[in-house]
Write a structure and sequence with these properties.
mainly alpha
Length: 251
C-alpha cells in the first residue's frame, strides 16, 4: 500500500507562510537588518527628542507667559506685538530650515515640506495665545497635533505620487515602510497622550480617519492615481480633523 505524501513533503519542506502577520514580521526583520532600519531607529530617536523638546519648551514658555499676560492687562500694544512676534521668529526659523533642506539635496524635498509645516502650524498656538493670554500644555498640544496632521498628509501625498504604479500589499509595504512606521508611531503616541491626559479624547480621535486611510492604502485594490480626487479627499480629512480638534479642546 502506497503512502500518500504529506502536504509538507509536497511543498518541499514546511508549509509556506503567506499570512499577513508573517509578511509584516519578515518586512520588519528585513527593515531593521537593512540601512533603512537605521533611518527608522533615527525616526524613533527623533520622536523621543520631540517629547523632550516639548517638555523643555513648556518650561520656557511658562516663563514667557507672564510678560505676555501682563502686556494684555496693561494693554501695552508694543509688548503684545513683541511677545506675539516670538511665534514669528519660530516660524521664520522653520521656513529657513525648509529652504536649507531644499538646497542640500532634492531627496530632502519632503523633509523640507514637513519643516515648513512646523512654521505654518505655529499659527495654532499663536491664536490660542491671543485668545487666552497664555501658552501652556494645551497650546503646545494644539501645535503638535496640527503639525503631526500636516506631516502625515505631506508624507501620504508624496507616497501616493511616487508609488502610483506599485501594486500588491508586499510591494506597497516595502515602498511605504517609512510611512507605515510613522503611522504606527503616531497611533502609539496619540494613545499615550490621551491615556496620560496630554490630549483630549475627541482631539485624539480626530486622527482616526487619517490613520485609517493611511493603513487602508496598503491593502486596497490597485487603481490609477487621480490627483484631484486625492486633493479633495485630503481636504475633507483636514476639515473633519479641524472640526473634531476644536471640539476636543473646547469641551
Amino acid at each position: 500500500m502506497t503512502e500518500r505524501p504529506s502536504k509538507s513533503s509536497e511543498t518541499g519542506g514546511e508549509p509556506a507562510h503567506t499570512g499577513l502577520v508573517h509578511q509584516i514580521a519578515t518586512l520588519t526583520r528585513a527593515t531593521f537588518a537593512s540601512p533603512a532600519g537605521k533611518a527608522l531607529v533615527w525616526l524613533m530617536v527623533a520622536a523621543v527628542l520631540v517629547v523632550v523638546a516639548t517638555a523643555y519648551g513648556q518650561i520656557r514658555l511658562n516663563s514667557w507667559n507672564k510678560p505676555f499676560y501682563d502686556a494684555l492687562a496693561r494693554r501695552d500694544l508694543h509688548e503684545f506685538v513683541f511677545q506675539l512676534g516670538m511665534f514669528g521668529v519660530i516660524a521664520g526659523a522653520a521656513f529657513g530650515g525648509q529652504a536649507i533642506l531644499k538646497k542640500i539635496n532634492r531627496n530632502f524635498r519632503m523633509a523640507a515640506q514637513i519643516a515648513g509645516a512646523l512654521g505654518l502650524t505655529a499659527t495654532a498656538p499663536a491664536a490660542y495665545y491671543v485668545v487666552t493670554g497664555r501658552i501652556d500644555a494645551t497650546g503646545l498640544a494644539l501645535w503638535l497635533a496640527n503639525w503631526c496632521f500636516a506631516a502625515d498628509q505631506i508624507h501620504f501625498v508624496q507616497l501616493r505620487i511616487h508609488a502610483a504604479r506599485v501594486n500588491g500589499i508586499q510591494d506597497r509595504l516595502v515602498r511605504g515602510k517609512g510611512f507605515f512606521a510613522g503611522q504606527v508611531i503616531l497611533a502609539v503616541a496619540l494613545a499615550f497622550a490621551w491615556r496620560f491626559g496630554r490630549m483630549p479624547g475627541i482631539a485624539a480621535f480626530a486622527f482616526v480617519p487619517l490613520l485609517l486611510r493611511g493603513f487602508a492604502w496598503f491593502f486596497s485594490n490597485p487603481e490609477p492615481l487621480a490627483v484631484h480626487k486625492l486633493g479633495k479627499d485630503e481636504l475633507t480629512h483636514a476639515i473633519v480633523f479641524g472640526a473634531l480638534t476644536i471640539v476636543g479642546f473646547i469641551v
